[in-house]
Design a protein that fits this description.
By secondary structure, this protein is mainly beta. It is built from one helix and nine strands. The protein is 7% helix and 74% strand. Strands 1, 2, 3, 4, 5, 6, 7, 8 and 9 form a nine-stranded antiparallel β-sheet that branches. The chain starts with a helix and ends with a strand.
């Protein structure tokens, strides 16, 4: 075991020492996302000036992938990225008269549907600590992003609960987190991060309509990622 760790840190030390002080990198990531806030699975919302009603689902944790391209200097890095995670969603509701309100005294029905969260974003990273000849580099991260959260059959017409369509929620968000990069080779490194996200939903789309939700909607949750960086 000692020999293995010695070999690992020896390889890493040689690797970081040969890396350029500034350059570009590409990353492939595995991600896991949670989405909470107003996504509780018990509320139906409406579009302004529309007969379309939307089910605001409860969203289970989901996993997926991410791709990223970035540039770095000795202390800072900037990145552009895309990620996509798949989620199970559910909605607890009973609306026999199709008026968008839970019928009093009626037994709840739980709808289970597939969901997805896509994110386009940009990050700024600051490297604040280095260990083992800078082979372990710890960073803080601040990011801004545009999310698209989708749910199958998440919308229906006010006068026909069986006339459904997929719904997608879009807006903007900000995230803040910490992470680490472990250099194994001048061209390769392992990276991982834990980030807290805040999302403000500004628009919902269903039945070909892009509308502003009647009520303010926010989401929040954690995003975890582990991946590989390739430097060029």
């Amino acid at each position: 075991m000692v020999l293995v760790f010695g070999l690992f840190f020896g390889l890493a030390s040689a690797s970081r020492g040969e890396e350029k002080e500034e350059g570009m990198y590409f990353s492939i990531l595995g991600v896991e996302n949670s989405i909470g806030g107003d996504f509780k699975g018990t509320v139906t919302g409406g579009f302004v000036d529309s007969t379309v009603l939307i089910r605001i689902p409860e969203i289970k944790n989901g996993s997926g992938f991410g791709i990223l391209i970035g540039g770095y200097t000795e202390k800072l890095a900037g990145e552009l990225y895309y990620s996509c995670s798949k989620h199970d969603t559910s909605f607890k509701f009973y609306d026999l008269n199709c008026n968008g309100f839970n019928d009093g005294g009626a037994e709840d029905t739980v709808y289970y549907q597939d969901g997805e969260c896509q994110v386009f974003g940009a990050n700024a990273k600051w490297f604040f600590a280095n260990l083992f000849d800078s082979n372990f580099r710890f960073f803080g991260q601040l990011g801004f992003f545009v999310p698209k959260i989708s749910m199958e059959h998440g919308a229906y017409q006010e006068d026909d609960v069986d006339d459904t369509a997929d719904v997608s929620f879009t807006g903007y968000g900000v995230d803040l987190g910490l992470g680490v990069i472990i250099h194994l080779h001048p061209k390769w490194a392992i990276t991982g991060s834990s980030v807290y996200r805040y999302i403000r939903i500004k628009e919902a789309t269903a039945f070909g309509e892009d509308r502003i939700p009647s009520d303010t909607m926010v989401g929040s949750g954690w995003s975890y990622s582990v991946g590989i960086n390739y430097y060029f």
